[in-house]
Amino acid sequence: MAESDLVRTKGTTPVRRRPSAGFVTFYSVFPGFGAFAPHPRRNHAESRLMIATSTTTSRGSGPRIGIVGAGPGGLATAMLLAHAGADVTIHEAQPIIGGRTRRITMGDFAFDTGPTFFMMPWVLEEIFSAVGRRLQDHADLHRLDPMYRLMIGRPDADPLTIDATQDVDRMAATLDAIEPGDGAAFRRFMRDNRRKLELMTPILRKPIRSLFDLATWDAMKVAPTLKPWQSVHGNLSTYFRNEHVRLALSFQSKYLGMSPFECPGLFSILPFIEYEYGVWHPRGGCNALMDAMAEVFVELGGRIHTADPVAGIEFDGRRATGLRTASGLHHYDEVVVNADATWAMKNLVPAPLRRKWTDARIDSKKYSCSTFMLYLGIDGEVDLPHHTIYTSTRYTENLADIGAGRLTEDASTYVHNPSRIDPSLAPKNASSLYVLVPTPNDAAGPDWNEAGPTYREATLDRLGDVFGIEDIRRRICVEKMVTPADWRNERINLGATFNLAHGLDQMLHRRPQHRLEDVDGVWLVGGGTHPGSGLPVIFLSSQITADLLCRERGLDAPTAWSPPDGASSIPRPEAVSV
Ligand SMILES: Cc1cc2nc3c(=O)[nH]c(=O)nc-3n(C[C@H](O)[C@H](O)[C@H](O)COP(=O)(O)OP(=O)(O)OC[C@H]3O[C@@H](n4cnc5c(N)ncnc54)[C@H](O)[C@@H]3O)c2cc1C
């Protein structure tokens, strides 16, 4: 991502801050997920200094496992496998861990590279718990209220502003004020989606390798509730009369890099999960969770080689025998790939060994959108909430442009302003701003060498005109720009930041599986596999991969899941608390 860095650092002194008073220790009591007590906070700035290259405990004596990539999926799988007794080594191409969830540091400013919305914290808690740790010992999670501000662009008026809150009464009143009756519809939407998430949980938590696996889920019985034939927008239209309200509860399809008009209606669970369980900010950013996982993995005896890109998987016939990396040839009994799944299949597994995932098949798939990013260290405070999402006045055209490879002038834009509540991310009287504009992926988009600087100017104008940030250009202390071409350069197929699209034709058994077909000893994990992109489901994919691999190798599967007997498979909202 280095090519388009524009770093201008004004002299600032390094500071290490204590957690702000607004931070509370993550502490939860999940029925069926274990009970935990509050625990003193940790200083994550210190743990971040630990580069996980040495071991503090003896290595596992089980199978030798090499992992390609230290993204969220790789790190979570590594923790689970190391705890199960395997001898695990991660090879990471970048100089630091975390993948698309890594930390960007410029002077005294710090930013999350990708994820900023952390949801469903109990999934990560399960992983920590499975390896004998408690997430709250390693992370400070702050529940946001309001969760985010929506600014819905309107052609003939100022944007309609909605502060999304978990307070259902307040939210219903807000929606009723926009369209009488839509408040009651919101309550119905929440009730129906609670049931929907409950029904979907078995497929999110289990490998779906074939129609047979799907049949055991009793798809026919749940279809009338899940209505898989609807799009998210179609589904919401059965509840809400107002188009702005529909937008407020469907823009979340963009979390998967999709348009709500194409995204399967199953994903109406995304807004439901926000309103039911909250949106969280880990102190230091989502990247701090990566540090926490790496730290535990190393404590469990694992090793991480950073700046050690894997050039290929070694095979003896169809059996994987190791990894060829910048540091040499490493022999392994099993290989787990956390690199972008379609990129990795094409680039790390020789074509003659791939019958199912041929290059032609990979190229014929549909891919998510990409993102244009600005990471800005700003002089002074910025009067914006933690998350602000602006949707274009030409929302549907903007979506169509993204699909067609065109850039939109008045593009939907998301601004993250975390240093307001998390002073560890910027110096005093300064702000670290993260700006994300969804764009076409790099299959059909523009030449970013030319388009990048122009798009930067348009985005900065929008930060002033729409978001109301005054004098933005003069206040920039440090800056980094990332375009779809940069994402592509860091081994993400077509720069499609959210991996393969999540249409029904590319989900479940049609998505790359956790055990790569046609070869032995190669496993996949991460957003390019089932269930899909987004931290919580990536952590679920790591549980599935680790469980399958452990079973194959006769190790105790640390997080094997089966439907709870008679109890709900989703936590009660009041149990997800601090
Ligand atoms: C801009 C953006 C915003 C996002 N926002 C959110 C959000 O708010 N909430 C959310 O839940 N999710 C979000 N996501 C989606 C998702 O959670 C992240 O992309 C996540 O980091 C993906 O994790 P992963 O495990 O699939 O792999 P990655 O994070 O992609 O990690 C894979 C790792 O493999 C390494 N690698 C690749 N090739 C090789 C090789 N040959 N040798 C060695 N190492 C290699 C890479 O360097 C990388 O470190 C966002 C993503 C992006 C890009």
Structural class from helices and strands? Answer: alpha+beta
Number of beta strands:
22
Give the N-terminus to C-terminus distance in angstroms.
36 Å
The distinct bound ligands, ions and cofactors come out as: flavin-adenine dinucleotide
Output the number of helix runs.
19
What percent of residues adopt helix (DSSP H or I)? 25-40%
Average of per-residue pLDDT values: 87
Regions with little confidence, pLDDT below 50 for 5+ residues: 1-57
How is this structure best summarized?
The chain has a domain at 175-280.
Structure description:
This protein has a domain at 175-280. The chain is 32% helix and 19% strand. It has 19 helices and 22 strands. The protein has an eight-stranded mixed beta sheet with strand order 1-21-17-20-19-18-9-10. Strands 12-5-4-16-22 form a five-stranded parallel beta sheet, with helices on one face. A three-stranded antiparallel beta sheet has the order 13-14-15, with no helix packed on it. A hairpin with a 2-residue loop joins strand 14 (319-325) and strand 15. It binds flavin-adenine dinucleotide. Residues 68-74, 91-94, 99-101, 114-117, 309-310, 338-340, 371, 436, 491, 497-498, 526-527, 533-535, 538 line the site of flavin-adenine dinucleotide. Residues 68-74, 91-94, 99-101, 114-117, 309-310, 338-340, 371, 436, 491, 497-498, 526-527, 533-535, 538 line the site of flavin-adenine dinucleotide (FAD).
